[in-house]
Amino acid sequence: MIKRLAACIRQAKTCAILTPIFVLCETALEVIIPLAMAGLIDKGITVGDMNEVIKYGIYLICLTALALLFGAVAGYTASRASSYFSQNVRQDMYYNIQHFSFANIDKFSPASLVTRLTTDVTNVQMGFQMLTRIAFRAPAMLIFAFICAFNIDSGLSLIFVGAIPFLAIILGIIIKFAHPMFERVFNTYDELNEVVEENLRGIRVVKSFVREDHEIGKFGKISRSIFKDFTKAEKIVAFNAPAMQIAIYTCMILISWLGANSIVAGGNIAENGLTTGELMSMFTYAMQILFSLMMLSMIFVMLTMAQASAKRVVEVLDEKSDIVDGKENIMDVADGSIEFRNVSFRYSDKAEKNALQSVDLSIKSGETVGILGGTGSSKSTLVQLIPRLYDATEGEVLVGGRNVREYNLEALRNNVAMVLQKNVLFSGTIKENLRWGDENATDEQIHHVCKLACADEFVQTFPDKYDTYIEQGGSNVSGGQKQRLCIARALLKKPKILILDDSTSAVDTKTDAIIRRAFREEIPDTTKIIISQRVSSICDADKIILLKDGMIDGVGNHEELYENNPIYREVYDSQTRGGKEGEEDE
Predict the structure, then answer these.
(1) What is the pLDDT of residues 305-345, one digit of tens each?
(2) What's the CATH number for 2-318?
């Protein structure tokens, strides 16, 4: 885990190396200051020698100024290193997520990935900053101060040795019980983000059903769960402070008692006893040593939190997409022909049954194919195997006569355009959204595909026309307008295969018919696959595929299926018996 995160340091390496050096210099100077204070007291103030007072005073000013300078520089380099580090971690995670297959994303869930990119990376950043600064400062201070204290009085310095195992035992107990709780808290954060994300995405539904109180209750329940776990963990961590206080004050009392006895026994300048200045130095070293132990305990507590987050971050960094470029790395898709050979598919190994079972299907290049089936019949699943959004569990999927696993992924997906059920537009102008299909598309090309998709007619009514700004998620356009813009965006790719996954459900039947007629006339060589719940959208297709429970129940044109397939006949009759379907743009 450490090795994987260390790879993210990169341009922060210089700052990460310089920080401990500056910290060590700062610490060494701070440890020398008590010795100068002892000289000031014993050689200057006690004997009334102003020259010595001035000399040691200058020493103290210089030492303090240098320690301050090294400390400030160390703070700057530590902040810069941790900022670069967190930036690199987020970039590496986000880059890796972009290459995830749908199966990889399903494994983590979007809410969990958001938590790992934000909260977890912040915790790891704090841990890294502590490692580069305080994790060097605390042990260095402990060692330097102990050496200086041992040189002043080896007997008194043994007091600190007794405090260390006591604090180590307390710290070990704290880490053992607190760490699992912090891990549980971060997993609960995933649930919290999921609730928030779901609520915001479906806020219109929440308000229309007056379910605000229900959503507040869901949020409150998870918030209380986080509060309880954090409270339990912090209660355990809180034992660290009184343990430190016991150790500090016990050491101070023992040093005061034994040091005073030594001064009384030996006098201020006796060789066998402590001087007043040395006793003052021992007090300072006692505080430095004990506060170093306190900082070490804080480091362990913070690293306990960071460790839980680091584990979650590394899981994302180490996750490899289960869909990669084929070994043959074929860059050219010959045509839009599609073939399924005994294809079965399940979403995970834990799934009880296959979503698709033994599918055999052949589609010629340029054909218009309709797919019809009830909810849960795996219509979307079938078409998602074509551009390898998922890989078939069994069997083969062929595009242009070659197995899709043999293609370069980018080349394959550039030749397959999908307009999904959940249409997504991004923040930006209409032009910027459409150029996702072709970033170099001219205005004329944009206008042309919008006319094919019947989008130009409403875009021209906007004051800014194609420079109209689309709000996040396309919230300032209707469902039908969003669908038509998404179809236009797909057409800009000039794909060999165009898949419309129930993507005309929000447009009226007249507009739907105009779009389909434009497809036949303008892109006759493109294979068109139309998934729809409306029979009128697919009845003129060259081939209609009827799916039931993940299996093909019938294949043929409208007349063949109406005559031979009772399910298709029933669906067609039920939809046409009432006359025309709704003609309003939703």
Answers:
(1) 788 788 888 888 888 887 888 788 888 888 889 999 999 99
(2) 1.20.1560.10
CA distance 284 to 278: 10
- The three-class DSSP label of residue 497 is strand
Residue 272 has pLDDT above 60, yes or no: no
Among the listed residues 362, 375, 297, 277, the one whose alpha carbon sits nearest the alpha carbon of residue 45: 277
- What's the distance, CA 330 to chain centroid? 32
At residue 427, the 3 state secondary structure works out as coil
* Two tokens, residue 564: 């031979």
Give strand pairing partners of 554.
Answer: 546
Closest-CA residue to 378 (of 340, 416, 414, 406): 340
Is the Cβ–Cβ distance between 286 and 160 less than 8 Å? Answer: yes
- Give the mean pLDDT of 164-173: 77
When the pLDDT of each residue in the chain is averaged and rounded to a whole number, the result is 82
Answering whether pTM is above 0.85, one says no
Query: How far apart, in whole angstroms, are the C-alpha atoms of residue 261 and residue 253?
Result: 12
- Measured between alpha carbons, how far is 435 from 493 in angstroms, rounded to an integer? 9
Query: How far is 305 from 299, CA to CA, in rounded Å?
Result: 10
Q: Class for domain 338-576, per CATH?
A: alpha beta
How many residues comprise the chain? 586
Q: Which helix (H) or strand (E) element contains residue 286?
A: helix 276-318
Closest CA to 112 of 182, 187, 183: 187
Return the domain boundaries, the chain.
2-318, 338-576
User: What is the Cα–Cα distance from 76 to 81, expressed in whole angstroms?
Assistant: 9
What residues have CB less than 8 Å from 299, skipping those under 6 apart?
A: 130, 131, 134, 135, 138
In this prediction, residue 265 carries a pLDDT of 63
Kindly list the strands in the beta sheet with 394-399, ordered across the sheet, starting from the edge strand earlier in the chain: 356-363, 338-345, 394-399, 402-403
Identify whether the C-beta of residue 145 lies closer than 8 Å to the C-beta of residue 288. yes
Grouping H, G, I as helix, E, B as strand and the rest as coil, residue 530 is strand
State residue 270 phi and psi, 5-degree precision.
-75, 150
Q: CA–CA separation, 323 vs 100, rounded Å?
A: 8
For 295-324, give one letter per residue: b (16+ CB within 10 A) or e: bbbbbbbbbbbbbbbbebbbbbbebeeebe
Strands 527-531 and 497-501: parallel
CB 433 within 8 A of CB 489: yes
| Residue 344 near residue 392, CB atoms below 8 Å | yes
Backbone angles phi, psi at 538, to 5 degrees: -130, -5
List the alpha helices (DSSP H) in 428-557: 430-434, 443-452, 456-459, 479-491, 509-522
